[in-house]
Amino acid sequence: MTTSLKRLPGWAKILSAVLLVLVVLLAGLRLSLLPGLRDVFREDTHDRSGPTLLKSIQDISRYDAASGNFQVVVDLEKDARFLPDALRGTRTLYVGAGTVDAYVDLGKIGDKDVTVNDDRTSATLRLPHAALGKPALDPDHSYAVSKQRGLLDRLGDIFSDNPNDERAVQRLAARHIGDAAKKSQLTARAEENTTGMLEGLLHSLGFKEVHVTYGS
Question: Cross-referenced InterPro entries, in alphabetical order (predicted)?
Answer without folding.
Answer: DUF4230 (IPR025324)
